[in-house]
Design a protein that fits this description.
Blueprint (H helix, E strand, L loop, with lengths): L3 H8 L3 H9 L6 E2 L5 E2 L2 H15 L4 H13 L4 H43 L2
Antiparallel strand pairs: 1-2
């Protein structure tokens, strides 16, 4: 079990962000008899999942929905699967756009590097 300060350092998020995630329903945190937040290793895995979803550009609305279904348990597995599959399609499309833009950048860099050599001849 970890305090919010310990847990914050472990997962690399500020205490403010952890409180925000709790307020938004993204994580559920137990409290001790003194009403102090208590985090477990399970929270670490959950935060890791949320950060992956965030890093893929999933909207806060969809992350909240995913979290809500996750807190509800196994009966929402089909809904979570559908949400993840739909989001994956978007991520693949985004990756393709980035790949095309990277090719463009490489082309332009190569063009400029070759022309710079001509300037010094």
């Amino acid at each position: 079990m970890y305090s919010i300060g310990e847990f914050s350092k472990m997962v690399g998020l500020s205490e403010h962000t952890l409180r925000y995630y709790e307020k938004e329903g993204l994580i559920k945190v137990n409290r001790d008899n003194n009403n102090v937040r208590i985090y477990s290793d399970e929270h670490t895995l959950w935060i890791e999942s949320l950060l992956h979803l965030k890093n893929t550009g999933m909207s806060l609305k969809d992350v909240k929905q995913f979290a809500m279904w996750g807190h509800m348990g196994d009966e929402t597995m089909e809904e979570r699967l559908a949400l993840l599959k739909n989001h994956r399609k978007k991520v693949v499309e985004d990756l393709e756009k980035l790949r095309q833009s990277l090719e463009f950048l490489d082309y332009k860099i190569n063009l400029y590097e070759n022309n710079l050599g001509n300037c010094f001849s």
